[in-house]
Structure formats: C-alpha cells, structure tokens
Amino acid sequence: MPKRTDIRSVLVIGSGPIVIGQAAEFDYSGTQACRVLRAEGLRVVLVNSNPATIMTDPEIADATYVEPITPEFVEKIIARERPDALLPTLGGQTALNTAVSLHDSGVLEKYGVELIGANVEAIQKGEDRDQFKEVVAEVRRKTGYGESARSVICHTMDEVLAGVEGLGGYPVVVRPSFTMGGAGSGFAHDEEELRRIAGQGLALSPTTEVLLEESILGWKEYELELMRDKHDNVVVVCSIENLDPMGVHTGDSVTVAPSMTLTDREYQILRDIGIAVIREVGVDTGGCNIQFAVDPADGRVVVIEMNPRVSRSSALASKATGFPIAKIAAKLAVGYTLDEIPNDITRETPASFEPTLDYVVVKVPRFAFEKFPAADSSLTTTMKSVGEAMAIGRNFTEALNKALRSVEKKDAPFDFAGPPPGPGEKAALLAKAAVPTDGRLNTVMAAIRAGATEAEVHEATRIDPWFVDQLFLIKEVADELAAADHLDPGLLAYAKRHGFSDAQIAGVRGLREDVVREVRHALGVRPVYKTVDTCAAEFAARTPYLYSSYDEETEVAPRERPAVIILGSGPNRIGQGIEFDYSCVHASFALGEAGYETVMVNCNPETVSTDYDTSDRLYFEPLTLEDVLEVVHAETQAGPVAGVLVQLGGQTPLGLAQALKDNGVPVVGTSPEAIHAAEDRGAFGRVLAEAGLPAPKYGTAFSFAEAKNIAAGIGYPVMVRPSYVLGGRGMEIVYDEPSLAAYLERHAGLISEHPVLVDRFLDDTIEIDVDALYDGEELYLGGVMEHIEEAGIHSGDSACALPPITLGGHDIKRLRASTEAIARGVGVRGLINIQFALAGDILYVLEANPRASRTVPFTSKATAVPLAKAAARISLGATVAELRAEGMLPATGDGGTLPLDAPISVKEAVLPWTRFRDIRGRGVDTVLGPEMRSTGEVMGIDSVFGTAYAKSQAAAYGALPTRGRAFVSVANRDKRSMVFPARELVQHGFELLATSGTAEVLRRNGIAATVVRKHSQGPGPDGERTIVQLIHDGDVDLIVNTPYGTGGRLDGYDIRTAAVARGVPCLTTVQALAAAVQGIEALTRGEVGVRSLQEHAGHLTEARAR
Amino acid sequence: MTAAHRGQESPAVLVLEDGRSFRGRAYGATGETFGEAVFSTGMTGYQETLTDPSYHRQVVVMTAPHVGNTGVNDEDAESARIWVSGYVVRDPARVPSSWRATRSLDEELRRQGVVGISGVDTRAITRHLRERGAMRVGIFSGDRVADPDAMLARVRVQEQMKGADLAPEVATEEAYVVPAAGAKRFTVAALDLGIKGMTPRRLAERGIEVHVLPATATVEEVYAVRPDGVFLSNGPGDPAAADLTVVRAVLERGTPLFGICFGNQLLGRALGFGTYKLKYGHRGINQPVQDRTTGRVEVTAHNHGFAVDAPLDTVADTPYGRAEVSHVCLNDQVVEGLRLLDRPAFSVQYHPEAAAGPHDAAYLFDRFAGLMAEHAAQTAQGAQRA
C-alpha cells in the first residue's frame, strides 16, 4: 500500500536552538525528513527558530518559518498555512511538547490538522512515568520479561520525602517528568541532596512531577532503536551498549554499537520487550528508542524509558548502521510500509530488515566543563556534554582509540609517553575512577598502568569485564611497542589494528609523530577503507560511506572527476558548533553542482555533513593530521584531487592547513600563510598598520611586573588572556591592579608557558561583526551585524541585529573599506569574518578570522544569499563577478546595501545555565563575559527591530512579559542609561521593584519604584521577603540585573541563578534592556505576525531589483 | 599485511579453492580442516551457530568481528557438539563475560578439536564469497602450514557440497521422546535430518509430545508412534541427494506435515519442484521474509545454501493437489515457504525456532498445532459420518 493521498501538506516542527541534550542531530533528522516529504510531492511547512541549520535553508521546505517554537507562534503558522498534518516526532522534545500543547488547546482540531507519526495517547504513554510503568507491566504479562525499577511518583516535597521510605532508602534516582535530555534528574544519597534535586525537578517539570526510583547504579545499560510501520512490522535498527554502566546519562556515556556482551538469548529478550513496548505504547509509525538496564549478576531486565520519536541515539544509530531512521520515519508517517521502502545503500533490498554490522562503533562525548569552572564535573543522569564524536573500526580497540582522538581534546587519547604511575598511586586512581567524570577512561588506564588487576578495575567502576580486558589489551600493545627493539611492519600493523595513532606510537617510542609516519609509510603500513553497508557485505553497497581500518582489502573505488575534500568541524563544542557544519554542507552542495566530486571528512554523528546523502563520498574519520593525510592519500590513488577545503569547518581544519601544505597537500582557498597572517598577533598587526587601521592598544607580558606596566600604559579596564587560546578561553576583563594580580595568580599554570595578552578594553563601544567574501579582486560584504550587548561580551554570546540598527551609510562604507583592506592584506580567497568596535568615531579592528564564521548561516538567511556556497566556489577559483553573473550572488550591491525596508533579523544566543551546578548544588552564574558559553542561537525576523527582538527572546528563553513586576538593579556605571528604558517599562504598566540604591536614582528621575530587600539583608522584621524569595515565589516577571565590576557581586549571583531556576527573563546589560523595551512595545502594540523566509527573500529580491 | 594478530598462537593460513589465501593466527584447535566456506552475518548467537548440525562440513566465516565475548554456557547449545568443520573470526575474545558463561569459546573449540583461524580480513573473505560464490576451503595451522600450492591441492581434492547426503551423518541414531510441556495435545513424529535442540522445545511448549526419529526412519517407524503430525527438520547437505519415500507417504496419507529448512526442500522436491544451490546462501538472523497471505514481514533466522525452485506468482498443480509459495525473502525473492492448498502440509525455508535469531516467526508452530487440531476434528467428523 503506497503513500496516503489525503495528505497534501505537512507541518514539521524543528527542535529550535542547540542546547545540551538537543543538538545538531535534529537538524540531521529534520533535513532528511523534509527532503523525503518534498520528494513525495507534499508541501512542507517548517517552523524552526534556529538559523544555523540546513533544515531552515529555504530550499529544504516550501515555507520555512524561522519563528519561535511556541504554541502561540505555531498556531499563527497553522492559521496561515492550513497544513493537513503535523509531524511532531523529528524535532525532539521541543516539537513533541509543542504538538501536545496544540492538541490539548484544541488548535489542531480547530484547523483540522492531523498528528502523524505519533498520536497524543502514545506520546503520553511513552513519556508519562505512571502510564509507562503500566506499559512495562503489560509487556511483562505478554512476554514474561521486563519490569520497571521500583518507584514512586511525587508532586510535592512531602511526597518525595515519604517516597524514599517506600523504596528502601537511599540512594534514589530523581527524574522530573517531561524534561529533555533528562534535565533536572540526579542521584540523591541523602535528604539534603534529595531536597535540592527533587525541588529543582518539581520546578523544571511542566507537570510539577518527579519520579523517585530504586537505584540500579552499576547495571549494564543498553538501548535499542526500533521502527514500526502501519502494518505492525517492527525492526530493530541497532543495539547500543553503554561502556559506562547505569548512573551516567547515555548522552554522557561512552557507547558502543552493536552490543558487545549479550548472548543471543539475552539480546532476543531485549528485542522481544522492545517490540512489545512499541506496540503497547502505540507508536503508529516511525522510530522509537528504548533504554534498558540489565543486572550483570542474573540478567534481570529493567526497562528504563522510551522516546516515541527520533533522538540523539537514533541519529547515532543511523550513522552507525547506514539505516536512515528519520528518513524512513518520514516515509512511514505518510503511509508507506517498511517493505515498500528500498534500502538506500544496497538499493536492491528493502528497509524491512535489521542492519548487521561487521565493525564496531564507539561514541565518545565531548564536555565543556572548562567553560564553567564552578560547575560540578561528575557525570550523573543529567546530560552535561555539549557534543560527541563517533568512530568506526574493525574492532573495539581501533574504534575506541579513533573516537578518543576524534573528540579533539589534548588529554583524551590514552597517553603512554611518560613513566607509569607507581603502585602506590593505584588505590587513589581506582578511587578516582569510581566516580564517573569526563576522562574517566584515562584514569582507568592510569590505574591499569599502576598495576590494578582486571577485577579491581571492574570492582571500582562496574565497567563490564570484557571492556576492561580490552583496556588491558590496549595497555599490552603499548607495552609491546615500548619493549620492541625497533618498529617492524608486524608490530606497527599490530598497534595500528588496535587504533594507536602515529602520535601515540611516537609518545611510547620517544619519537616525533612525523618520523613514525615516515617509518610506517616506508614499511608500507597504511590503512584500508571499508564500507558501512548495513549488511556485513552480504550485498554490494552503492553508497561510498567509508571508514579506515588496518585490514587487508580496501574498497575505495576509482573515479574520473576531480575531487574536493572538505574537512568538517568535528564534535560540537561551545564556540564551534552546527554553524560550521552548515557551511561544510553548503560547500559540498555548491561544489557538487559545479561538477566536482565532493568528499566529506568528519567524525560528528549528529550532523548533516555525515549523512551519506550529502557528499559523493563520506569518510567517517577523526580530523587529525594523520587521519586526514591518509584519506587524501587514498583519494589521490582513486583519481584526481583538486584540493582540500579547510576554511569552512571552523578552527579544527584551519589548524591543519599549514601541516597539510607542508605534506604536499593542495589547500584551496585562503592559503596557510594568509591564515597565519590573520591569526598571528604580530603579522596581523603589520597588516593593519599597512592598511592604516587602528587596533586597540595591547601588549604581551611574561610577568606580573610587565603586565602591570602595560596595563598602566593602556589604562584600566583591560582585557587579559593567555596568548594561545581560542573561543575566549580564560579571557577576563580586569578593572584594577589587584584584580590583575589575582588573574595572573589564578592562571599561573598557563602563563608559565605562554605570555599573557593585555588589551585595551573598549568600554561602552558598539561591537560589529562583518562576514565578507573576497576573491583577490572584489569584496562582497556579506552582512554587517551590530551587537546589542556592549564590547567585552563574546560575540558568540551577544545578541546582534542585521542590518545594523544604529549605523549609517557612512559607517558601512568605512566598514567595507576596512574589510577590503584587511582581506587584501591577509590574502583571503573565500570568507573572512572581522570584529570591529566603534568607539566614538574611531573604528577599531578587534580580530579577523580568515574562515567561515559562526554567523555565516545567520547572515546568509538574513540577506538571502548563500555565502558558504559562494566561498567554496571562490576557493576553487570562481570570482565574485562570475558568481554575480551566475545568480549565486546578487547582480549588484551587497549585504551592506540592503534596501531600507529589508527585514531586520536578530540573533540571540542560548546559554546552558540550567545544566550546571557547583559541587554544593548551587546554580552557576549567568553573567556574560569575554569567554563564550552559549551552546546555540535563535533568529527573530520581522520588519521592525522591536518585534524581531521580541521574537528572538521568545524563541530563546520564553516570551517577554508585557505586564507585571520588573525588578531593576544595575551597576553604578549603568544607572544613567537605565533611566529611559525604566520609564518606558512604567508607561507600559509595569510595577518596578528595585534595591535601595537603584530605587533612589529612579525616584530622583520621577519614576516610582518599590524598594525590596537585598538577598544579603535577609527577610525583614515583619517577614518582608528578599528579592530572591520574591523571584522564587514567582512574583517577579522581568529582571534587569547588570553585574557590578567589583563588590556586591554575590547578591547579583543569587538573583540571576534564581531567575534561571524559575525561568524568569533576566537581562544582564542595559543595552538588552533597551532592546527588550522595544520588544515589549511591539508586543503591546498588538498583532505580531509570522512570515516565511521564502516570502522575506522574495521581498528582498524584489527590492534589490528596484 | 603480516602478523596481524600477535600473541602466543601459531600462524595459520586460510586457502580458498580458487587460490586466494589469507594469513592469520591459529584459533581453537591447531591442525588442518576442510569444508565449504560460508559466511554468517549474525552479530549474536555464535554458540547456537557452532552447534547447529546444518553447518556440518562447512567452514563458517563470522562477519561480526568480535566473537566469544560471552563465552560458552551449558544452556545455549543446539546439539551435543560443535558441527562446523572450521571457524574463521577476526577478533576472538580474550576473556568471556556473562553470568551464564562456564568456559571460554577458545577452550571449547580446542576441547572439541575444531580448527579455526583468527586475525584475517573476514570482510574481504565475505566479499570474495559473495562475488564468487560458496566454495571449498582449508584452514592450516601449526605443522600443517605448508607450501601454498600443496595446501591449495589439498583443498581441491575435498568433496563438494553439491550432491552430498549428510543428514544421516548428523542425525540421532536412536529415537527419543521430548515430552509435552504441560498437558499433551498432540503427538508428532519429527524426522531428525540435523534437528536443532530448540525445535522440539518450541513444539513441546505447545503441548506436543515429540518423537524424534533417525533420518533413516521408515514410513512404518514414523506411523508406529501414531503421530497427529509429522515434522521434517533442518539439516545439512544437498536435498537432491535425499530419499523422499517418507515425505511422499505422509503426503499420500494426508497427515499434517510441517517442514523447516531442509524439510522445506524435501517437501518441495516431493511436490515435484526442483532445488538449486544458491550462490552464497542465506546465513544470518536479519533476513526479511514476507508472509504472502498476510503481507506482514518477519525478521528471521536463516541458514540455507540450497533453495526450492517454485513459481512465485502462480498456484502450481502437484501430485498432492495445489501448492503455492507462502513466504518469500524480500532481499532476493528466494522461496522461503510452501503451502499445500488441498492437504495439511506446509514448510518454511528459515528458522522459526530461532536460536539464534528473532522470535518473529514463532507463530508457525501455532499454525502447525492448528493444522493438527483441524485435521483431528475433520477426521473425527469423517469417522462419525462413516
């Protein structure tokens, strides 16, 4: 039975901004689904507030709404588009929750929209703890297997405390209902912990509900990915085993596919339970993920949870098996059955089968604790990782070692270079390994090197003995490497087969990495490339989805057309996320259209770039020099290679540029020398000097004395940072000499090796970001973004507007001229991103990045021009003029000459505050600074700034309030600029609350404000509540709290963390307040409309033609 | 690439009859062995595979790289011994990990004298067999490693699988009874052509007392147990070489008949269809089979090198009335099941007893029980009328 004919248009809801627990995997899934639905001839209407996605590219859907994913906005879209159906299972928890809310409010019924893919009843059954327990009980009645952990549902703290008794005491697990990525869950070992975790959980849960559960810590943990069609055919796509046993969120665990330590009997029991669960829950069509815990002592199976939708795990399973879950889910949703859908990879066999693997897949999470030094870094059932890398090998050791180097952290791969820890350290290392943390495997390896036995490691960590043995195997390989007289081919091949990198071998042997590589090449020890084919070679694969292995036979096919090898951006991390994947995917599309054979290299399973459909060939490989050189070698053997593209994947490939060139690899686009000219402080200084452009004064210091002198010369405040860092790591603004001394003391370790850069901090300036294309002759100014927050806040964390709202034509001209001078001086061929600061009338150059920037997708969408595609073409020799003639770039003008009635786009950053707590369980401070900490972004687009800003806030944090109580407490330097926006708030009907100092200023300016007690003052004699209590009680609707430079800081900290806990909008700069006031005004004025990107683009194109 | 797998084990060589060879390390017993090279794609269930009599005289290449992770236990074997003639794996486990394991696979292979090889590119071998078809192979280790030409010559003198009558070599010599679990509803005579232990268990679970008879059992011996139904098991070898007397007699008498795997091929031949050797067979636990009466797809366990040649889309006339293809493999349209429309007989080419594999097709045992119940009712009615 083919597809349904009664559905003509489908609304797809995306997942919104990248946050921890809900990341790029939904772009991958959503893009696949939208493409499939369009190919089926359906009109696809999409809503997603995240501009950095391929999914929101105008060609992916028929009508793309970059609007907030809230029931209110989605209803407006439904009213406008009148879709026949809504597919809610591809946009994570956000989409599912929005769909349920639209159902509950009657909107779907009102407009006659049918939910497809999952019905509300199934969603409830899967997600509601009580109902799911019933499901599991029923499954046990039917299959004889599976049970729930003993548990109790609680709605109040009293119920929580009583519940613990019933479960047999501590420890217990707390899980709030209906939160994504397990937000707010954790283990409580005593009453204090329980009160804290359950208290927050009750607040986080939209239904004020938490589940308390018996502890199954240390059990084996598994996941199955299943699919079901309308004929009740069910297949298990993939099994995943967590190396970290129960107790660590699966998103934070090292996971392995397929499962390694189950017999067929036990595996089939999980399969039977899984199938029974999907039927019992009633997922009509589509995918679902089910998690299990298995008692290693007797095989007792506890069914932990199920997600009736595509998920991070389903993206991983798709990449791990070659079975595209989201794509097939979309086809099933419109009526196909599994046997009617061909397997893309074999083309001849159907999708109604279960993939079988002849390789091992390992996923390793990537964390960002260095960005949140105050946060507790132990791993729990709340997900904390910001990204992941996946690796494929022909065995576990190969896959694990590849995965560990794929996460691109210096200390992630096992290091056997130094002497082993002494036996005396064994006990301490084992004790440390008992607590799951980022890098626990390295601690385990250190314990093994210190002489721990397999039994001791298992006892401490509960890691399955088979995995423990594999770690011992890796250590034994290292020992053999160390003991050998010389590196012979057999030994090298043996080490390579267990995944050792040239760098690791070099470490063991005390050699240089390039020397090991030379020896290895001379001895003819090179990897082969095998295909991911879903069927363990039973059928021929038509899709070149490849991974390296040190095995015998390679499967790289020869080709005729010249290839461009595009290096991706590796695991998502703060500062380098989905935006770079977006640019790589665009390059692949553009170069494919231009006649090149596109070859993608990346190791991030969440992304569109690692979809086997995106490029002509996909190498799922780590992005290290060694791995990239081997891919280049293999492709050079296969046919002509036009070059390697490094400028679109962010800092990861850019960092390889020079070494690639040194190894004779053609790097296309901006040359490694040009990259150096932009990145090296001295070289860049010369570029600026030649162009006559001012940069803020700065100096380089190797000691406090030097730093003190430089700072005195520049004048406080100054910005200080270690010289080698990226993404603003360790960067701080210091306001006086004692703070400078304290900074240097805190970073003493870093500074002993690298000097400190001391920059003039441009207080009270407008910061501007520019993305531009340069072909050596002509500059195309892609877009000019004006930051809403002042300079000093990392550009990634700052909101910005495009076109700039306060800059005039004269400013744009200066920006264009400066950009062109820098692009020419540096020698850019492709994209460049420059940050400027406008202080008074002086335009300072802060920094230049000769690569695609984080803002490229935003700029491209705001101006309806595909900048990354153009950059890829320019890298391979096309000119701006040619691209204008082709129509890829506008015939005339650029992103600096947008028509006056062009829509205004606002980008807002999304920050992961709720995810992190310090070791005492308190939230981390939310103040923005020079170090980037946002995980994602949203875009608000409308005809005027106020509305666009209001939309960006609604999309990022929840709607701005239009009435109620606003609390205002600002630093002295902000008091003057606060007066006007505060007055407007009152005019809009807000009641102002303020601490005494701020209230005094307001009253003197004729603005009524109620004085409230500071947190530090404590409650008043008559029980008057402090501001923190008021926030916690839900009596404050808007918070304006700017941090004081020094002193008074603690009070602000408590206010801001309370705001995060209660989800109250909290503005931490006066500039944001001013923007918010405009937003509130727009909201108050009435109807805020929605408009698709295609309509905006049509409008722009028309205006440009005028 | 040399010395792919270091350690104590001695070198070993795998030699295919077309001359391609792979060097690795000895695994299990040391020595030499021969058989038909086949690959199995299951990721779990190596213990069941090794002990499945259908693998008699075959050298099994495991496509899953890690084998032996859960060791060997006393519960999962499908027969009393390992039947494969040789075993090819990439990365054998060094320690077993399972609460049910009693010993390691390596130990078990040595104990039973099964010669294996590890550390070879199993995917390359699999691709070779896929392109060239199943073929004879030898594994040589220890002092049996010799000059390549000499080893190849040894491989080329081995017997071919085509035309081999192997069921008598693997079947029980003495009849035995597996009692019904719970109340007994039926008696079934099961012809052991290489039966797996799970099959009588699945029958017994449905109230069936199973009389397992030697492959050589006569018609008289079959009917001596007064069967309500007759079961034809799986087994090794070429169905063209098997004797069909019993099958024909059962069809003649109209006794309910159910066949699995080799049993399906025997039913097919008795009906007058041909059988043929597949290029490289179906061996795995992920094969999509469509039940053509319901349209439903089941994921099934397969282990067959031969298949029945029957028309897919027409009802065929046979000496025993009309017959149709009831099940088909969606990967390659191979006949996976037969059904007589006028007599109570059906069979499938795959393994509803699973072990190893998914339980999707377990309903077929119910179908057999249903057939026997229906037949018993009709017989009773007939007796009444008479």
Describe this structure in words.
The complex is a heterodimer of chains A (1106) and B (386). Chain A is of the alpha/beta class and 1106 residues long. Chain A has seven domains: 9-116, 3-Layer(aba) Sandwich (Rossmann fold), CATH 3.40.50.20; 129-301 and 332-362, ATP-grasp fold, B domain (D-amino Acid Aminotransferase, Chain A, domain 1); 388-522, Carbamoyl-phosphate synthetase, large subunit oligomerisation domain (Carbamoyl Phosphate Synthetase, Chain A, domain 4); 556-657, Rossmann fold, CATH 3.40.50.20; 678-694 and 763-902, ATP-grasp fold, B domain (D-amino Acid Aminotransferase, Chain A, domain 1); 698-746, ATP-grasp fold, A domain (Dna Ligase, domain 1, 2-Layer Sandwich); 950-1085, Rossmann fold. Chain A is 38% helix and 19% strand. Chain A has a seven-stranded antiparallel sheet with strand order 14-13-10-11-12-15-16, with helices on both faces. In chain A, strands 17-18-21-20-19-22-23 form a seven-stranded mixed sheet, sandwiched between helices. In chain A, α18 packs across α19 (513-522), α25 packs across α29 (809-826) and α34 runs parallel beside α38. Residues 1046-1050 of chain A have low confidence and may be disordered. Chain B has 386 residues and is of the alpha/beta class. Chain B folds into two domains: 11-156, Glucose Oxidase, domain 1; 167-385, Class I glutamine amidotransferase (GATase) domain (Rossmann fold), CATH 3.40.50. Chain B has helices spanning 46-50, 105-111, 122-132, 148-156, 167-170, 198-204, 219-224, 245-253, 262-270, 363-385, and strands spanning 11-16, 21-28, 32-40, 58-62, 66-67, 86-88, 91-92, 115-118, 135-141, 176-178, 186-191, 208-213, 229-232, 257-260, 274-291, 297-309, 316-318, 321-329, 335-340, 345-348. In chain B, the strands form three sheets. In chain B, strands 10, 11, 12, 13, 14, 15, 16, 17, 18, 19 and 20 form an eleven-stranded mixed sheet that branches. The N and C termini of chain B lie far apart (77 Å). The interface between A and B is large, with 64 and 61 residues.
